[in-house]
Design goal:
single chain, mainly alpha, Lysozyme, two-stranded antiparallel sheet
Amino acid sequence: MRTSQRGLNLIKSFEGLRLQSYQDAVGVWTIGYGTTRGIKPGMSITKDQAERMLANDVPRFEVEVERLVKVPLTTNQHDALISFTYNLGSANLESSTLLRLLNSGDYAGAAEQFPRWNKAGGKVLAGLVRRREAERKLFLEAA
């Protein structure tokens, strides 16, 4: 399943667009809409390059979500999980109670796990609280 424009917009809205490399809340070098692979201090890109980076990054997470999730998903559920995994990485999804509940067929229980993932560097971040609530809401919304 491919991520819809709504899913991409969700990622973009929370990642924000940064054309100069920066260190995120836990010190990872980042650029564009949250791209972290191969990013170094002092890099700069254009908005078009940021769009291409996002378009190249998202399919990697689609493959991981497809590999890990064993139950049918609506487009909204898929998009919510892509945003979650884009932000946290597939290893965190793989080890999560969210995934365990989802794969057991407990969609509502899985949705209630999103808000638990609101910390970076051990600290609750307001942006992550908002992002997880938006992902939870999208996950629960009928497609």
